[in-house]
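ok so i was messing around last nite and threw this chain in just to see what happens. nothing serious, just curious
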Amino acid sequence: MARISTISLWLMFLMTISFKSIAINNNYTIGAGDKIQISVYGEENLSIDELYIDNSGTFEYPYLGQLKPLNKTTEQLQNEIINGLKGDYLISPKVRISIIGFRSIYVNGEVKKPGGYEYQPGLTVDKAIALAGGFTDRAARKNVYIAQAGKDDLKNKVKLSSSVSPGDIIVIEQSFF
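result:
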């Protein structure tokens, strides 16, 4: 009896993790620096284990030519591939797109190790600062800003508990005293 409940708990835990992953992938738009995986059921020659999205934002896909995944969700890219393969190449293609690596976030200013760090789902400003070695002695802990990727001139003042998105640039100002 105890073994069944332990197995049930593990299954619930694994389902929760996969639902979180699905929720991230459904709302997340693909950008330069992301790594994706394309799986086509039963078609190894159409599956790609790891594809890095570079600044051009395009890649060559068998039979379909140039695809542009930038600013598309995984579901939108999946539908584009399904619709392209359906009919002429496959009767009923089963395609799955997964994000296997997110673009980096950057932490600049008054931290011990400024630089780029790999984004992780659930990342907050305080966790990103911890990745960068923490605040320096001169950091203005209440003057923390985020510049979103592609909008470098627009910085928003944020709290340490604020969420971070892939590509964000976190800037910690210097204290005057």
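not much to say yet. The longest strand covers residues 139-147.
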